[in-house]
Each structure stands twice: as C-alpha cells, then as structure tokens.
Backbone:
C-alpha cells in the first residue's frame, strides 16, 4: 500500500491511499491526515468498497477444499 | 486509490513546529526557546518586555536588526498561534505568505517524523511546479 501525500503551499495537504482495496487500507491515511490538522474532506472511492483480492482467493480455496 | 482526504494543516506538534522553523530559517537552528509547560514573555526591539507571552520563542536578534521576538502560543485546543509584530509582518516578510510556507514545512516534518516512528519508507519526494511537495510513502 502506498500513501501519496501532497503538501500544498496554501497550508492544505491531501493524503491519497493507493494500491489496496477495502476499508482496512484507509486507516493509515486517515490517521496521518488527522495528525496534520482538520480533515475538511474525506472521500471514499469505489475501490474502498471492493473486497480485497487476497481475501477472495482465500475464500475460493476454502470453497474448493 | 480507495481513499482521499484533504486536510487544513494546523500547528499542533511542538517538535514538528520547531523543526519546521529551523528548516525555514537555518540561522534559527539551535536558537529557538521552547517552554513546553509554561509561557514566557516576548521582548520588543529595544529589549522592553511586551504583554504577549509564548511557549515557543525566536529571540529578536535572530529575526532581524530592528525586530521583535516572534512567538507561538499554545491555545486551549492544542494548536499554536503565531505572535508576530506588525513591523516584522510588514518589513521583515514574516507575513501570511511566510506562515503558509511554515505550515507547508510543518506538514512535511509531521510526515517525515511519522514515517520514522511507524517504519514507513519515503520512496520519492519532489517539489512540483506549483510549489507543492509530493511524497510517496510505502506502508507495510
């Protein structure tokens, strides 16, 4: 998982979580954002609501067994 | 991308604020006075005590020849507010643009301190054409 952080010259910062599906990944980004100041917008993309790929594979393996 | 947050930066961490001040003004390194549990008075350009008090103080001799002390006072909500005289705002350029640069440097220091504390890895850091600093941080 990656965090892309853009510290703007106007005193705002954006934190984007990249590379992982599901809500678990948002935790790191939100924690960091809250340390920086007041979160003024918190958007969740479609990827946030997707089931992580690893979990799906594990579930399929269980079903086959 | 699963998540996208925008933050209005607030000066909340004493360590990050001091590090940001030292990064912006290299001659302030090692010369900033920090009073974590109390406040101390600020002094004007002739050495007269002012009514203002602060937790973090940059002595006037490091600010400029005719400058006053610059201070940062911790508020009830834990954020620091800057105390800068009109002279230093208008003639020494410690104005809103400087405070915006300080916030930018502060945010950078918070991220760098967190990546150390949490074992994150900064894989890239660059200054964009618009003056923004972009960091890519590997987690886990």
Residues:
């Amino acid at each position: 998982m990656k965090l892309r952080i853009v510290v703007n010259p106007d005193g705002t910062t954006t934190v984007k979580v990249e590379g992982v599906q599901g809500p678990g990944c948002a935790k790191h980004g939100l924690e960091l954002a809250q340390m920086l100041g007041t979160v003024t917008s918190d958007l969740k993309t479609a990827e946030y609501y997707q089931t992580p790929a690893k979990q799906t594979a594990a579930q399929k393996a269980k079903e086959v067994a | 991308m699963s998540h996208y947050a925008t933050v209005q930066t607030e000066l909340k961490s004493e360590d990050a604020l001091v590090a940001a001040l030292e990064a912006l003004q290299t001659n302030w390194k090692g010369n900033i006075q920090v009073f974590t549990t109390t406040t101390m008075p600020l002094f004007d350009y002739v050495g007269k005590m002012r009514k203002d008090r602060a937790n973090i103080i940059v002595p006037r001799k490091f600010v400029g020849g005719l400058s006053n002390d610059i201070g940062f006072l911790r508020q009830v909500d834990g954020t620091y507010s800057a105390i800068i005289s009109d002279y230093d705002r208008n003639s020494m350029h410690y104005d809103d643009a400087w405070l915006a640069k300080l916030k930018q440097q502060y945010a950078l220091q918070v991220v760098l301190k967190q990546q150390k504390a949490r074992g994150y890895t900064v894989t890239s850091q660059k200054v964009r054409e618009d003056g923004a600093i972009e960091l890519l941080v590997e987690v886990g």
Notes: The longest strand of chain B covers residues 3-9. Strands of chain B lie at 3-9, 33-34, 40-43, 49-54, 56-58, 70-74, 80-83, 121-127, 133-138.
